[in-house]
Structure formats: C-alpha cells, structure tokens
Write a structure and sequence with these properties.
Bound molecules: NADPH dihydro-nicotinamide-adenine-dinucleotide phosphate
Strand order of the largest sheet: 3-4-5-6-7-8-9-10
Number of helices: 10
Length: 280
C-alpha cells in the first residue's frame, strides 16, 4: 500500500516509478514553471511529467538541475517523463525528437518516454525508435499515451518490447474500467492525466461529502482514490500550497464503500480529445 510520497510502483522491466508526480501541461516556460517544479521537489515529489508539445522542457530541465543541488539529490533520485509529439512520429523523426527533448531538458537520459497520441499508421514506426532508444539505454522505460485497447493490441502484435505505461485521461467521471483491466492483464501501468478533471470535479457533491468525512479536500480524495486503485497520478498545479495539498495523501485511507461510491460516479465523460477521433 502506498504510504509515502516517494513510494513507487515497479514497472514490467523492474524500473521503479513514483506513484505521484507533478504535471506541467499549459504552464509557460517561465519563472512560474521553475518555481512550481522546484517547490514540488522540495516538498518531496520525485517525478515530473512534461512533453515536447508543452514547450517547457527547457524550464523543467533548469528547475530539476537547480532542485538537485538545493535538495542534495542525484539524477537517480528523480523520474523525468517526456513525450514525442504527433508530428514527429516516424522512425528517424522520433529518434531526432528524442535528442531535441533531451537537450532541452539538459539530461543524459529519460526515465520514461511516451508516444503522446496514437496517430493511425504512424505509431508503430515511432515505437521501433522507442525500442531502439530503450535498448541503447537512453530511456529507462518506454510507453504510450491515450492508447485504447485496440491500439495496444495492434502495437503489441508487432512489438519487441511491450509498453510499460499507458498515460490516459482518468478521473471519477471517466474511470476507464475496461482499459484498466486490459492493462493489468498485460502488465502495463496506468497513469492518470487530468486526475482532477482539470478542476471540473471540485464541486461534485458526492466527492465533497466523502472528502468532508475524512477532513480532506476533494482533490486529495480523488488522488487517494487513484493510489488505492494502483494508478499513477500526476496532478498539475503551479501554486505551492496546492502542490503540497496534492501530495498530502498518505495519512488517510478511503473505505471500500467510499471507493465504490466514487467508482459509481463514472459517466465516460472526457475533458480532453477522444483517442479514436482526434485531428492533430
Ligand atoms: P489536472 O486534472 O491535474 O488539473 C489541473 C487544474 O486543477 C489546474 O487548473 C490547477 O490549477 C487545478 N488544481 C490543481 N490542484 C488543485 C487543488 N488542490 N485544488 C484546486 N484546484 C487545483 O489537469 P491536467 O490536464 O493538468 O493533467 C495533469 C497532467 O497530466 C498535466 O499537467 C500533464 O502533465 C498531463 N497531461 C497529459 C496529457 C496527455 O495527452 N498525455 C493530456 C493532458 C494532461 P492551479 O495550477 O492554478 O493550481
């Protein structure tokens, strides 16, 4: 059971990945970003989730470098994720995109690199590049994002290395039950993006009632629900108080009954694009 902010899940290849990380989607590459990432690390976060398309890898890299010195950490204490964008899906293109990301981040290797979206006809070639980089030791774990079951089946059919992680939209209104069962059978760790539904669930009455019972916030209740389901979660905030709040998840436990009540809120409702019908 997850008892501490730095507890980790063990991926299929034996690599340890923190259950909790900081997301930095829609955070411009400026002082606010650097402050957020440094605050998170100072308050015990060890995992940061960025992507080429967020255009903030440079600032993430700067913040990570400064935080390592200030907190006396080594590179091996941290878990850094980035993602290859749709325009760069192809064997050579993905190899090149990886080098650009790594350079912006100022890192010698990535802990996790993901195919950001399952662009039809393109993700298999990109996956071959990910496998090459993985086999060369440039990435500790490789995975995908926004893959549905049929995308995973298609990819795995030709893959030498199975994806270790699938990062998908997941929150109480989109609980992804079928995909979670499939990934569990396949040994693929699910990671929730928009765990707080981008702020859209904070007024949800059932969540408010459950949160009040434990003396916790709705955000903490949702994130605890993720952890108790064995889901890696990466809430985004640029506010230091919320960064602390979102990591204060280890002093309470939701009962089986409350877990089931949250499960029952599912509406298959997305805030982001549908992976079977996106156009970018
Ligand atoms: P989240 O569900 O994490 O919600 C973020 C929003 O909630 C922000 O507006 C934030 O505001 C607010 N918030 C955070 N904590 C609290 C709190 N305790 N109380 C009240 N409000 C709060 O949405 P994201 O879309 O950012 O998802 C998380 C991460 O997942 C991203 O940052 C990114 O790293 C990843 N992601 C991946 C995608 C993919 O396709 N693979 C797509 C989208 C996201 P504020 O900052 O002002 O605190």
């Amino acid at each position: 059971m997850t008892q501490h902010i730095q507890n980790k899940t063990v991926l299929q290849n034996g690599v340890n990945m923190p259950w909790l990380g900081l997301g930095v989607f829609q955070v411009a590459d400026n002082e606010e970003l650097i402050h957020a990432v440094k605050s998170a690390i100072a308050h015990g976060y060890r995992s940061i989730d960025t992507a080429a398309i967020y255009e903030n890898e440079r600032g993430v890299g700067q913040a990570v470098a400064e935080a390592m010195i200030e907190n006396k950490l080594t590179r091996g204490d941290l878990f850094i994720t980035s993602k290859v964008w749709n325009a760069d899906l192809g064997y050579e293109e993905t190899l090149a995109a990886f080098e650009v990301s790594l350079k912006k981040l100022g890192l010698a290797y990535l802990d996790l690199y993901l195919i950001h979206w399952p662009v039809n006809g393109k993700y298999k070639e990109a996956w071959r590049a990910m496998e090459t980089l993985y086999q060369q030791g440039r990435i500790r774990a490789i995975g995908v994002s926004n893959f549905q079951i049929h995308h995973l089946e298609d990819l795995i059919a030709d893959a030498a290395v199975k994806p270790m992680v699938n990062q998908v939209e997941m929150h109480p209104y989109l609980s992804q039950q079928e995909l979670r069962s499939f990934c569990k059978e396949q040994g693929i760790q699910i990671e929730a993006w928009a765990p707080l539904m981008q702020g859209g669930l904070l007024d949800q009455p059932v969540l408010q009632e459950i949160a009040a019972k434990y003396g916790k916030s709705v955000a903490q209740t949702i994130l605890r629900w993720d952890l108790q389901h064995g889901i890696v979660t990466i809430p985004k905030s640029t506010k230091e108080q919320r960064i602390i709040e979102n990591a204060s998840l280890f002093d309470f436990r939701l009962s089986a009954e409350d877990m089931a009540r949250i499960d029952s809120l599912n509406r298959d409702q997305r805030v982001g694009p549908d992976p079977d019908n996106f156009d970018f």
